[in-house]
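#onboarding

Welcome to the new folks! Below is a worked example of what a typical request in this channel looks like: someone posts a single protein sequence, and someone else replies with the predicted structure as tokens. Don't worry about understanding the tokens yet, we'll cover that in week two.

Example request:
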Amino acid sequence: MEKSTELLRVSKKIVIKIGSSVLSNEKGSVNRDTLKNIADQVRYLRESGKQVIIVSSGAGICGVGAINKWDRRGDINYKQALCAIGQVELMQAYKEYLKAHGIIVAQMLLTAEDFRDCNRNLNIRNTLFTLVDEGVVPIINENDSVSVDEIKIGDNDMLAAYAAVLWNADLLILLSDIDGLYDKSPKEHDNARLIREVYDLDTLVDSIEIGEKSAFGTGGIMTKISAAKEAGKHNIPTIILNGRIQDILLNVANDCETNATAFLGFDIMSGR
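Example response:
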């Protein structure tokens, strides 16, 4: 049994982060087929007895798709305005596809400041526990329409790690446009080797070559490594998967041959 399959099998509380590169097509607009497939997989996980929290990027892409303008403007005001428009579109799509399975969704927009303040931190935690206990799927995103450098988390990989720690999750899954962690960029090197299991992150970073981030995302492989490190501090394992592959979570759950990287470093069967 693959480590990724074993992790998913023993985990009940799962945070799934979905990157912009997963939700966008080659033209940079939202891919609703992919979003629908993710909703179908969330239904499967819940019916398997799992609890799920989603951390979703994609507001900016949805904003471009909604009004088909401003996409080339670099001004921060336009970027924030696009996210404000796109967040509505993004949540409407999640609501539509998950409601088809009888699943209610809730939106939570957060900033770094929310995690630094003890009272806000407690309120986030209480809200997450209440929503999940009542069968609702929280969908978290950074509040990009108001975030500036002083209060910006920076990318949703880290936001997902913070949410996983706050919720005391059993597993963090990062869905991106890559199959996992490679020793060098597979987009630039044909001989790149997939690293399936990671136990020592500090040693690993010194031994791999970091490529460029994806065209439509805010992060890259280093943000995923940082997120895995943050989660790992609290004994939460992380899996990187290619979210563009149809039914990728189902493939892992059913122990199908799947490319993935599992960040471990402790006994996943310890029953923590």
